[in-house]
Amino acid sequence: MTSQTIPTRKCRGFRAGAKAVLLAAAMLCSQAASADPAIAGQILQLAKLDYQQFDMYYQQGKLYAQIGQVQNAQQYFLSARLQATMISMDLLNLRAENVDTLHEGQCNDCNKQEIAIQYNSVASLNATVLDTYMSMLVQSPTSQQLLVQAEMKRIELNMSMLQLEQAMLAAQ
């Protein structure tokens, strides 16, 4: 057994475990929405925490990529990808809550609730694209083009999540 096969097996085991955790989390999060603005606020806070964790992993991966430590960069980009997936799931759950809040009339300003739903959709799209960029950075962590594109999408996700939060607050 060479030293090359050990990291590969560890990586496969980590990926399989991560997939199992993500599947379990998706199943837990797939409950019916409650149309409760307070629950939507909690889900938004979870998404923000997941974003902070994503950002920490992403920034660390970027630093390692810039100094040429490819394996370390790959590990951090993989962790960032898992967090981006979690953000995507959070935002899907949040959208369901926001839609139910709108349909049940639990908003003070339903026009602003519709705007929140639109920002939620934009944020979800940004998170999904960012997840894809992280996947590509795991494969090519030193690609300057990918790093620039991921950085732009990270900024867009951050902005869309801020706009979503502001719209949700305005709707309540």
Q: How many individual helices?
A: 5
Mean pLDDT: 86
What's the total number of strands? 0
Q: Poorly predicted ranges (pLDDT <50, ≥5 residues)?
A: 1-9, 20-32
Sheet bearing the most strands, described? Answer: none
Instruction: Output the structural class.
Output: mainly alpha
Overall outline? elongated
Whole-Å distance between the termini?
61 Å
- Estimate the helix proportion, in percent: over 70%
Name the beta content range: under 5%
Rg, Cα atoms, Å = 18 Å
Q: How do the SSEs run, as a string of H and E?
A: HHHHH
Q: Mind explaining what this structure looks like?
A:
There is one protein chain. The protein is an all-alpha fold and 172 residues long. The protein is 85% helix and 0% strand. It is built from five helices and no strands. It has helices at 5-29, 37-66, 70-103, 110-139, 144-171. α2 (37-66) runs antiparallel to α3 and α3 runs antiparallel to α4 (110-139). The termini are far apart. Mean pLDDT is 86; it is low at 1-9 and 20-32.
Offer a concise description of the structure:
The protein has 172 residues and is mainly α.
List keywords for this structure.
disordered N terminus, 5 helices, single chain, 85% helix, 172 residues, mainly alpha
Helix-strand layout with pairing:
Blueprint: H1 5-29, H2 37-66, H3 70-103, H4 110-139, H5 144-171
